[in-house]
Design brief:
19% strand; disordered C terminus; single chain; globular; 4-stranded mixed β-sheet
């Protein structure tokens, strides 16, 4: 059994197959190539039906009705139509959530993507390095400095844990390029369970004045019944959640969105004093007075796992959902009837080998390179690679010097500023590199060196999660903020070159 790169999915080829047979396999077993020779594989998170060497994803227990079988929604999205996605990201830790979100989108996607990331300088450094080294075909990205629009929202008192960055989605119609007419806006704590093109297709269902596509809020927050004297912001019924937004930028610009939301926010803040749910409160206040701009999206596109959620009423089977939203401060620790299933799906993408997502969308042009060895490599290096002897036992080892490894800088929170005072002008940083088998040495190293440390860790995606758990559970390491952890992801099979006998 070997893995091959199909048009949009990693398929499995077998010499002999048992058509129509279903076997229980986890995603990790599928990725590792384990299990019997079959043409149909049932994974923990869904059924992967292998037909013509491509995966067709049908959730376990999900039965499509005749209407959905005959749906033409997918035809509304051109084969190579670019899907634009915008996110707001700030700080070191939030970049990890972005990676999991992007993995889930890439796993199912069939169209080119363009990511629009608004963030601070920390997120810019981390994600620029990550995306350039990831080298994903047909995925472009643009960064926008949050500093340029912070003044537009920093005047708003906000009690939400996201701080001022939780208000920046309000500024996107002005901050994004005028040439961009529509975009899907996502919180970084969502996980996709289907092709994002299906969500993009819903733009075609928006009527003439509808500019915002939102899913109804799945808690009683805006009903004001959660506790005594609870006074939420104005909203229609239960209100609407802003973790997933279809935003028609051209329509919002025509109605002078920047003036509209600010006028309503200034008026409501006179009585509300501050926002509790950041931008969501203001979006709902605007919709209350401008119902014509709202397009309601089916609840499966934003299954909210918040405290006091009523999301279970949204689906009859646990896998009817399309997007999972971890919108509780507790995140994966949130209590829910199907929380274990949701966590398993999220963890699948968390540990999924990002290198496997470097697959080309055939027929869509763009960068056709699916290797970590870029075509932009200088001619002399390409020539050097061609002259290498593939029969050399150290071929893979020698090839590594031409490889650009996927790199995630500052994997954990980092706080350190050089003290420029006269007594500390010669500060020294300890630099080291290690892999998973040397992980225990970090704790000993940190005990003996109190100064700044920069560590490059060569790991797989799964090992990176084990490393994260190790650091967060260690008192010595979890309290240190002057250690920069930089993950360099493994490429292919690790090779050891041995000379002599």
């Amino acid at each position: 059994m070997i893995y091959v790169q199909t048009h949009y999915r990693f398929g499995i080829t077998t010499k002999e197959g048992a058509e129509g047979v279903t076997f229980d396999l986890s995603w990790r077993e599928v990725v590792a190539g384990q299990g019997p020779n079959v043409n149909s594989l049932k994974a923990v998170e869904g059924i992967l039906k292998v037909q013509d060497n491509s995966f067709l994803h049908t959730p376990v227990g999900y039965k499509k009705d005749e209407k959905s079988l005959n749906s033409k929604e997918d035809e509304w999205v051109g084969k190579c139509e670019v899907i634009h996605v915008a996110i707001v990201c700030a700080g070191y830790n939030s970049s990890r959530s972005v990676v999991t979100l992007i993995k889930s989108i890439l796993f199912y996607r069939k169209n080119p993507l363009h990511l629009h990331v608004m963030g601070d300088s920390k997120a810019h450094l981390i994600l620029t390095t990550l995306f350039s080294s990831w080298n994903i075909p047909q995925m472009d990205y643009s960064f926008y400095k949050a500093d340029s629009v912070l003044d537009e929202v920093s005047w708003i008192p906000n009690k939400h844990y996201s701080g001022v960055y939780g208000l920046l989605k309000l500024t996107l119609p002005r901050a994004l390029p005028p040439s961009l007419t529509k975009v899907i806006i996502l919180d970084t704590d969502v996980t996709f369970a289907t092709d994002i093109a299906q969500l993009w297709a819903r733009f075609h269902k928006m009527e003439q004045e509808q500019a915002l596509g939102l899913v109804e809020n799945q808690s009683d927050w805006y009903l004001g019944k959660l506790w005594k004297n609870h006074r939420p912001w104005p909203a229609l019924g239960r209100g609407y959640n802003t973790g997933v937004i279809l935003m028609d930028l051209s329509k919002l610009r025509k109605i002078n969105w920047a003036h509209l939301w600010r006028m309503i926010a200034e008026r409501d803040l006179q009585t509300m004093l501050s926002t509790s749910l950041a931008d969501q409160d203001i979006f709902n206040a605007v919709i209350t007075q401008n119902q014509h701009i709202l397009h309601e999206i089916p609840c499966q596109w934003n299954v909210q796992l918040s405290d006091n959620t009523r999301s279970e009423s949204c689906y009859t089977e646990v896998i009817d959902l399309k997007v999972i939203h971890w919108n509780s401060p507790k995140k994966l620790r949130v209590k829910n009837k199907h929380a274990e299933f949701f966590r398993n799906l999220h963890l699948t993408f968390l540990e999924y080998d990002g290198n496997l997502l470097r697959r080309e969308l055939f027929g869509c042009g763009g960068n056709a390179t699916i290797s970590s060895i870029h075509l932009s490599t200088p001619v002399q290096l390409v020539s050097a690679i061609e002259q290498m002897n593939e029969d050399d036992p150290c071929y893979e080892f020698s090839l590594a010097k031409y490889t650009k490894y996927r790199t995630h800088l500052f994997y954990l929170d980092y706080e350190y500023e050089v003290d420029s005072s006269e007594n500390n002008s010669n500060d020294v940083t300890l630099v080291a590199q290690l892999s998973m088998d040397r992980l225990q040495m970090i704790q000993s190293l940190a005990k003996h060196w109190e100064g700044p440390i920069s560590l490059a860790l060569y790991m797989s995606d799964t090992e990176a999660q084990q490393f994260l758990s190790f650091v967060l559970s260690c008192d010595t390491l979890s309290q240190r903020k002057n250690i920069g952890y930089h993950i360099v992801y493994k490429e292919g099979v690790s090779t050891t070159c041995r000379y002599g006998s």
